[in-house]
Amino acid sequence: MSTDISDLNGRPVIIGGGAAGLMTALQLAPERVVLLSKSPLGAEASSMWAQGGLAAPVGADDSPALHLADTLAAGAGLCDAAAASRIVHAAPAAVEQLARLGVAFDRHADGSWRLGLEAAHRRNRIVHATGDGTGREIMRALIAAVRQTPSITLLEGVEARRLIVEDNAVRGVLAASASGALTIATNRVVIATGGIGGLYADSTNPGGCFGQGLALAAHAGAKLSDIEFVQFHPTAFDGPSRPMPLLTEAIRGDGAVLIDETGQRFMADQPGAELAPRDIVARAVWRHRAAGHRTFLDARKHPGVDFAQRYPVISAFCKMAGIDPSHDLIPIRPAVHYHMGGIAVDGFGRSTVQGLWACGEAARTGLHGANRLASNSLMEAIVCARWVAESIESVSAGPRAMLRDDAMSQASDPSAVRPILTQGLGVLRDRDGIARAIRSLYPLACGHSVASDAALIGLMVAIAAIRREESRGGHFRSDFPHTAASAVPSSLTRVDALAAARDIVESTPFAWSALS
């Protein structure tokens, strides 16, 4: 590696090469920062795959108050209303900032925004770029800006393995590359590593997004919040490809409907029909499939012949599968798409560990509650990056003390964890299924294998899920199908989760054979 690592000591370190990490680095300019990306920029970032766009109240008939109301309704009582209000009020300015960075958003001939409609939005407020290629276009512009910013030292192919923490304060980052291990002394670290979709067999996320940032934070002693809430997108393309291609909700916003092999429109009688909140649609599709039906997205009439022009990316992969959406049904099924929970942070992205911030999907800001409103996530990443940067700028670099030699952890592999979470922590959950998952994950999480970090995050999700004895948003318990009168956020540390799992495993040893 040609970069002199010793010259990087003392700089803020941003871990993650998606939209949240890139935007945070740009917001910190001209302060010198280090950006770590385990893959070439964009290669394993969920942001690159985002089709829907950014939700922002920029339409003439819209307002931040309406956007906030829709966000709170989708969040099923678990949003932080003050945080959500602050974020949605900042959304229009974030869109304008991206446009200044060169993002080519879709516009009408008069220059006004071309706005789409998605589920649970009462207004057309989704700002798109190149139809269904919004994430790709945003990442193109951000990557170009980062590469042209001299204050950003970009280390691609470098993976953060552990944070060095003393007295609940960050002191450095242990990382690994093809050239070997490296240690960067710093008292300012941002985790922007994305979600946990790679912990499941069926996901629309890149396979490399499996909660590594959450594991870094958990090992550092940070609190995680609301991590039982996993959003399943109801319309992933039902085929052999992994990650699963996504069929954006905007297609249903354009009038496409869900039908089965008999032609029955099985969502027609539900409030909101195909544009009901995602958790409701996902469960309806899941149950219909469990009853023996096949499920399809029918876009033959709407958008019909305009499909390829409106959704070129989706049209291309459908064509590769031998499907013409203007004439053929598109097979769909639910798949893991977004993680509402994450590292517990305040309004400036600060975690419970001094010197550790989080931004994007890895953070739990309180915006999404129990069920993310469509297209609020890219918007959140862009908006919150500015506040994270402002907070970091207020903290001076710490002393460049000699760091101790910490043992380098292995690279993680979630393969052993995927079938466990897929079976026990899916669209529909119950105590027995979650308990089986805990029993399988606990020894892996306590070990030192390549599966340990992935198992730890899976275990923490399972502990949070077994404790929440209600159904709310993305967390549905078939043994507790009703929603509790009050919404209480969950909070969990690594130590808490391991102790709770041990108690569950040891308290009913006689029952495990029956549950296996």
From TrEMBL:
It is found in: Cytoplasm. Coiled coil: none annotated. InterPro entries: FAD-dep_OxRdtase_2_FAD-bd, FAD/NAD-bd_sf, Fum_R/Succ_DH_flav-like_C_sf, Fum_Rdtase/Succ_DH_flav-like_C, NadB, Succ_DH/fumarate_Rdtase_cat_sf. Its EC number is 1.4.3.16. SUPFAM superfamilies: FAD/NAD(P)-binding domain, Succinate dehydrogenase/fumarate reductase flavoprotein C-terminal domain, Succinate dehydrogenase/fumarate reductase flavoprotein, catalytic domain. It catalyses: L-aspartate + O2 = iminosuccinate + H2O2. Residues 13-378 form the FAD-dependent oxidoreductase 2 FAD-binding domain. Its cofactor is FAD. GO terms for molecular function: L-aspartate oxidase activity. Gene3D superfamilies: FAD/NAD(P)-binding domain, Fumarate reductase/succinate dehydrogenase flavoprotein-like, C-terminal domain, Succinate dehydrogenase/fumarate reductase flavoprotein, catalytic domain. Its main location: cytoplasm. Residues 457-482 form the Fumarate reductase/succinate dehydrogenase flavoprotein-like C-terminal domain. Catalyzes the oxidation of L-aspartate to iminoaspartate. Belongs to the FAD-dependent oxidoreductase 2 family. NadB subfamily. This is L-aspartate oxidase.
